[in-house]
Amino acid sequence: MNRTRSTKTASNSPSTYNGGVTIKSPQELEAMAKAGAIVGSALTLLKCSVEPGMTTRDLDNIAYKEITRCGAKPTFKGYRGFPASICASVNEEIVHGIPGKRILREGDIIKMDVGATIDGFIGDAAVSVGVGEVTQAATDLMDATRISLEEGIKAAQPGNRIGDIGAAVQTYAEAHGYGVVREFVGHGVGRFLHEDPQVPNYGQAGKGQLLRLGMCIAIEPMLNIGDWHTRILDDHWTVVTEDGSLSAHFEHTIAITEDGPKILTVHS
Q: How is the chain split into domains, by residue range?
């Protein structure tokens, strides 16, 4: 689950701080990895479960059962009043879709964003999946979004800066003709779902917060076939493309380590 650029992080006191950013200890990184593994397990199950005819609430129930089976809590449920365990966003819905009675149909693309909390730490990741047979345009969009995430992760090297991540995502996405959502961004993650720093999917290389060992961040490109502008529906949660075009979303929580970026939310 991402945050808007205008959101301010509450004053927190986990771990140690460096310029407002939490630096995780080795023990805390182990706890983050445990939370991330549960998110990865839930996403693996969700990807295998998607099929025409099911509802987005069905997916929410599957995720809830898997997260709780692993001894964790769904991070999103109750977060600022969010009523479900996952975000389930279909087609032109970018993020924060509320699971409900909507039936998935052949050709849809569904974005599933999952958070899990265990031992006080949080994992957060998202995938986009085609429902049955989808158009080549939808497949290309999802592929480009996934690869732009990979490009962003590769740029998350210790000693680089937040702007290097955004520039890598933006360069790949725009070279392939996609709009990069700007109003919603990635974020730091740890004991709180939204910690500093903010991690935009656009920017200038060499600018922004320095990436230090022990930082954990969620990188989450959101790409649109059309324009990058968005609007929020009357439910005050669901974000859609302003022009009604298809959107895709992928996300991983990563740790900055001596060996480079380490994905904590691996799924198959």
A: 15-261
Taking Cα atoms as reference points, which of 203, 200, 241, 204 lies closest to residue 221?
200
* pLDDT of 168 higher than 90: yes
Whether the CB-CB separation of 135 and 69 falls below 8 Å is answered with no
> Helix 136-154 and helix 162-175: axis angle, to 10°?
150
- Residue (of 49, 48, 234, 225) closest to 139 by Cα position: 225
Q: What pTM was estimated for this model as a whole?
A: 0.94
Secondary structure (DSSP) of the chain: --EETTPPPP---SSEEETTEEE--HHHHHHHHHHHHHHHHHHHHHHHH--TT-BHHHHHHHHHHHHHHTT-EESSTTGGG--SSEEEEETTEEE-PPPSSPBP-TT-EEEEEEEEEETTEEEEEEEEEE-SS--HHHHHHHHHHHHHHHHHHHT--TT-BHHHHHHHHHHHHHHTTPEEP-SEEEEE-SSSSSEEEEE-SS--TT-SSBP-TT-EEEE--EEESS-S-EEE-TTSS-EEETT---EEE-BEEEEEETTEEEESS---
For residue 16, the model assigns a pLDDT of: 57
Q: Tell me which residue has tokens 């996934």.
A: 146
Tell me the CATH architecture of domain 15-261.
Answer: Alpha-Beta Complex (3.90)
pLDDT digits (tens, 9 = 90+) for 128-146: 999 999 999 999 999 999 9
